[in-house]
Design brief:
Distance between the termini: 18 Å
Structural class: mainly alpha
Number of helices: 7
Oligomer: single chain
Number of strands: 0
Order of helices and strands: HHHHHHH
């Protein structure tokens, strides 16, 4: 069950406030990190299935959260530069949403399915 499906169940149990629209929510979980989404178009080994399969079989994955961040941002960058780089890469990803959904069917796929349900 997707994270947002669980959230929707909880949200449905909360009565709406009078004279207010219910807030629409969408949740995507970037595993192992958002930088995996940013890097997956450049490195075909970075994908949700690869990460999960290797972790379950105790194989060496080849990357982790810190290495993805280091690879994407470099070292010694300030927070403003990191934010700008992340925003720039996120804009590029909008041209490849189908591929991102394919590579990250749970984390990103759940987000897409939730938004499409609106």
């Amino acid at each position: 069950m997707c994270v947002e499906t669980k959230y929707k169940k909880i949200q449905s149990e909360i009565p709406p406030l009078e004279n207010r629209k219910q807030i629409k929510t969408a949740i995507g979980l970037a595993v192992p990190a958002i930088e995996a989404w940013f890097r997956c178009m450049k490195d075909s080994h970075i994908a949700e299935a690869t990460w999960s399969r290797k972790l379950l079989s105790n194989e060496q994955v080849g990357y982790d959260r810190p290495s993805l961040k280091e690879d994407f941002y470099g070292s010694g960058r300030d927070e403003k530069t990191k934010k700008e780089k992340a925003e720039e890469e996120a804009k590029k990803l909008t041209n490849n949403l189908e591929q991102l959904e394919e590579l990250f069917p749970q984390g990103f796929g759940c987000l897409v399915r939730d938004i499409k349900s609106w």
